[in-house]
Amino acid sequence: MTHKSNHISIFQFDGHMLSRLRIERSSKGLSILSFETETGAWAEEGALEAAMKDFVTRHNLGADPVYTMLPRHETTLRILTLPSQDDEELAGMIRLSAEEYVPFPVEELNIGHTILEKLPSGESLVLITLVHKDVIEAHLNQLRRVGLEPEQILLSSACLASAGIAAYQPRDDRYALLNLGSSGLEMVVIDEGKLHFSRGVASAQDWRRVETEESNEREELCLEVRGSISAYRRESEDGLGVDRIFVGSEWAAVTNTCEVLELETAKDCAPADFMRNLITKGGEKLETLPLVMLGAALAAQGRAAVHIDLLPDSVIQGRQMESTKHTVLVGVAVAALVLLSLVGLYAQAVYQRSAMIRQLESQIAVIQPEAMDVQAMRQQLDILDRQVQQEGSALEVMASMSRVAPEEDMNFTRLTYNRDTGVNVWGRAKRIDDIHRYLDRLRALDAERNAALFSQARSLYETRDVERNEVVYLYQISIPFPGE
Question: pTM here?
Answer without folding.
Answer: 0.68
